[in-house]
Write a structure and sequence with these properties.
79 residues, alpha/beta, 34% helix
């Protein structure tokens, strides 16, 4: 299995304005490990602090202790 990275999207910098380096904390909730890790790579590269959860139950645990500014979530997961 391969992991997505910024290198897979060379046109991104030219097509879309770069995201501001706000240092905001994002929580990615995704059961597909490759997609989850790829999103983490891209968003970390853009300057965001990224938290990860593999399912909704893990996400609830993360949110109890840490307070992300934004949650990006898959809507179809087994748990």
């Amino acid at each position: 299995m391969s992991t997505l990275s910024v290198a897979h999207f060379p046109r991104l910098a030219y097509t879309y304005p770069m995201l501001p380096n706000t240092g905001a904390t994002l929580l990615i909730v995704e059961d597909n490990a490759d997609l989850r890790d790829g999103l983490k790579d891209i968003l970390s590269f853009e300057g965001f602090n990224v938290l990860l959860a593999g399912n909704g139950c893990e996400a609830l645990g993360v949110m109890r202790n840490l307070h992300p500014d934004l949650i990006i979530s898959d809507i179809s997961m087994p748990e």
